[in-house]
Amino acid sequence: MRVLRGRSPRPAADREHTAALLADASDGTPGLRVWTPPRQVAFGRRDAREPGFERAKRLAADRGYEPVERDVGGRAVAYPGRTLAFAHAIPLCDGRSVESIADRYERATEVLLGALRSLGADVSSGEPPESFCPGDHSVRAAGSGKIAGIAQRVRGDAALVAGCLVVAPGDARQIADTTAAVYDALGVPFDPDTVGSVADAGGPESPKRAARALEDAFVDGLWGDGDPRVDRIDRGD
Predict the structure, then answer these.
(1) Residue 178 belongs to a domain with what CATH number?
(2) Contact by Cβ (8 Å): 108, 224
(3) Domain membership flag for residue 86
(4) In this predicted model, what pLDDT tens digit does every residue of 14-52 receive, in sequence order?
(5) Which range marks the domain in which residue 215 is found?
């Protein structure tokens, strides 16, 4: 499995690396990326159809976040700079094509839960009401806030299972503040107290530790082959 580490400093260039993983998967090469995206608010396609979308983008920019539009997921997610993103590109031109979308969601949730529990975090599937990027495929700190969400982009020859993971309480507070303003402009219900973190669940505050645990869980799991081929992004991109 190809494993990509690092990031480009600007969101547009950084997204090209994930797009390349998906393109490689269409040729039969699975890929994985777990990283900290540059500071941005990633809006979903549903957000772009809302009357308050332009105002939401201005509010994000006023707080120092670059507004971008992503191809997967429903609602906006704020990345303060240390919050993790993950993207697993899966070829659909081989035996893995028998998996359904629901199968991939279930497996990705299991991978995420296993990785976090290996770090000592007490986590479960699901989310509280009025969470950020609300959806059916989420992970929360047990009895507390949402810390991760999962989405998919599916093409005829490959699928991208992607998501976000809030690691540190400081990031959780920044996400809550920015999301409150952005979701208000979009008309999306949101409770700032529903944002949690891996640290809230008893895990580490280190994005690097969480990233390596998640990377290992994907590489060594049913989707991986236990043999990562690591490539690194030049930060000068």
Answers:
(1) 3.30.930.10
(2) no
(3) yes
(4) 999 999 999 999 999 999 999 999 999 999 989 999 999
(5) 2-224
